[in-house]
Design a protein that fits this description.
By secondary structure, the protein is α/β, with parallel strands linked by helices. The chain has three domains: about 325 residues, ABC transporter type 1, transmembrane domain (ABC transporter transmembrane region fold, Up-down Bundle); about 220 residues, P-loop containing nucleotide triphosphate hydrolases (Rossmann fold); about 30 residues, no CATH class. It has a six-stranded mixed β-sheet. A hairpin with a 2-residue loop joins β4 and β5. α5 crosses α7.
Length: about 575
């Protein structure tokens, strides 16, 4: 319940709609409860005495109550819808904003498919709980108490039937709710799994078709789909038991009341109108119990969803800007001092260990290393996408933890290993780097990244549509657009994380030459090809998360066996040639 109460704080301006809706429910209930009393008088006085005027007056009064009940019910529906869907929009917005604040380490704790489910399905569950549950939540207790009270007022002896039937129904419904409650959490996790398989299959649909793995993906989908179906069937198998239980108790109550009531009428202890009005209260009381059970089922499911949403909102953001943070990055110098890092505190080994590295502003630095040598991990510490476990990373002589995150990341341009373009035009994607950039500035960045070569041939040029995720351009073209976008930030430090791997060597040479015309920008290049870094001011070789060697191309070629091996394999095609070149 604490999770649900916490989420109710996001009602904001819609709190007024919910209060008005609640008041309308109480008014509607009042008018409905008046109708059986008027009905009893109509039968016992008007019909029994043949008083037509009395019949008309009571009939009009009943009609007015029914119309007013209808009007208040319709008004409630309007305000409840505004409150439910407004609240849902606020909760979704709060989750999305929180995810935007997450550090990479926070994102590592949630599957993407699970976050999507929490922002969509789980919020919909909460909206349905308000839409379908708020009215009976307020209405049912009032109808239950007033119905029982008025039935005892009309005939206390006959009302004793409630003391037997109502507790039986209450106990039955409690057992059903208790059984169903934990099953809703499993149901939402099954939805997570289904979303995960669907998202993965659609994202990688081209690879699936290329490897002819359609049947395998269908089998995966069928497995999670069947799991969701089985979980749903088990959950709602128990959830729908409340209806037959309610009907059994309700009709048993009616039979008993008619039995005892008929006997009392024959004995002159009860009038026909009183029995008719009493039956109306029986139906209202039983119906209120039924609605309460439905509210508990809705509440039970909404609590599971509220807990999942609260996990997103309460996740403590690992990286935040410190108080009085520095907002200016004077230059692009970078220093690693005794840096060690592991992704999880309980991890057995460090991804990086004992890194000491000093890069002066304006230098071009190449980073080489085998797969898993933590090259990407190293550069992600510079814009503080992760925090070091031990040691300090400094930019412009200041600990990165002392900078405002926005200022630091604005000063560091990073072209990630996985190039990401968004749905929309080339212009819209490039303006992520500079929202105010005009056409001349955009084309200048494209020329530096050699993206102008293909953009000039594309229909629309800068206004060409890229499709979802940049499907309308090749891998190399996508990389060049990402480089141009990063250049538009005018960063002090420019990081290329293997971001020219899909570009031919001639084009890569042009990009490298264009970048050399940016003397005040520190350039850090992670690459697999030696030609990408051999002209760098210094080359860093990483091996198993530690710095193996640092030097220029000539120094490393003369003394470092790992570099010699890379050179021999890529430049001469064999160890013998590499050895001859060294001599």
């Amino acid at each position: 319940m604490s999770d649900l109460r916490r989420l109710l704080r996001y009602l904001g301006p819609y709190r007024r709609d919910m209060v008005i809706g609640g008041a309308l429910v109480l008014v509607e209930t009042f008018f409905e409860l008046l109708i059986p009393v008027l009905m009893a008088d109509l039968i016992d006085v008007g019909v029994m005495n043949g008083d037509l005027h009395y019949l008309v007056v009571k009939g009009v009064q009943m009609g007015i109550c029914a119309v007013l009940s209808l009007i208040t019910g319709l008004l409630y529906a309007r305000y409840a819808a505004q409150a439910a869907y407004g609240w849902g929009a606020q909760v979704r917005a709060a989750q999305f904003e929180q995810v935007q604040r997450y550090a990479f380490s926070n994102l590592d704790r949630f599957d993407t498919s699970s976050l999507v489910t929490r922002m969509t399905t789980d919020v919909t569950v909460l909206q349905n709980a308000i839409n379908g549950g708020f009215r009976p939540l307020l209405r049912s207790p009032v109808m239950l108490l007033m119905g029982v009270g008025l039935s005892f007022w009309m005939n206390a002896e006959l009302a004793l039937v409630f003391l037997v039937c109502a507790p039986l129904l209450g106990i039955t419904l409690f057992l059903i709710v208790r059984r169903v409650a934990p099953m809703y959490s499993r149901l939402q996790r099954a939805v997570d799994q289904l979303n995960h398989v669907v998202q993965e299959g659609l994202t990688a649909i081209r690879a699936v078709k290329a490897f002819v793995r359609g049947e395998y993906e269908e089998e995966k989908f069928q497995a999670v789909n069947a799991e969701l179906m089985d979980t749903s069937q088990k959950t709602f198998h128990y959830a729908v038991l409340n209806l037959p239980a309610f009907q059994l108790v309700m009709y048993s109550s009616i039979v008993l009341i008619l039995w005892f009531g008929g006997t009392m009428i024959l004995e002159g202890k009860l009038q026909v109108g009183e029995l008719t009005g009493f039956l109306s209260y029986v139906l209202q009381v039983m119906n209120s119990l039924m609605m309460i059970s439905n509210v508990f089922l809705l509440l039970t499911r909404s609590l599971a969803s509220a807990r999942r949403i609260s996990e997103v909102l309460q996740e403590e953001v690992d990286l935040t800007s410190p108080p009085h943070a520095a907002t200016e990055v004077p230059d692009g110098s970078v220093d690693f001092e005794g840096v060690s890092f592991k992704y999880h505190a309980d991890a057995a080994e460090y991804a990086l260990s004992g890194v000491d590295l000093h890069i002066t502003s304006g230098q071009t630095v190449g980073i080489l290393g085998g797969t898993g040598s933590a090259k990407t991990t190293l550069v992600q510490l510079i814009p503080r996408l992760y925090d070091t476990t031990e040691g300090v990373v400094k930019v412009s002589g200041r600990d990165v933890r002392e900078y405002d995150l926005t200022a630091l990341r604005d000063a560091v341009g990073i072209v990630l290993q996985k190039n990401v373009l968004f749905s929309g035009t080339v212009r819209e994607n490039l303006q992520w780097g500079d929202p105010d950039a005009d056409d001349e500035t955009l084309w200048a960045a494209c020329r530096t990244a050699c993206a102008d070569e293909f953009l000039e041939r594309m229909p629309g040029g800068l206004d060409a549509d890229l499709g979802q995720g940049g499907v309308n351009v090749s891998g190399g073209q996508k990389q060049r657009l990402c480089i141009a976008r990063t250049l538009l930030k005018r960063p002090k430090i420019l990081i290329f994380d293997d971001s020219t791997s899909a570009v031919d060597t001639a084009t890569e040479g042009k990009i490298r030459a264009a970048l050399s015309a940016l003397p005040q920008v520190t350039k850090i290049i992670i690459a697999q090809r030696l030609t990408s870094v051999m002209h760098a001011d210094q080359i860093v070789i990483l091996d198993d998360g530690a710095i193996h060697a640092v030097g220029t191309h000539r120094e490393l070629l003369a003394h470092d066996p790992i570099y010699q091996e890379i050179y021999a394999a890529q430049m001469k095609g064999g160890e013998a040639h590499g050895a001859a070149d060294q001599r």
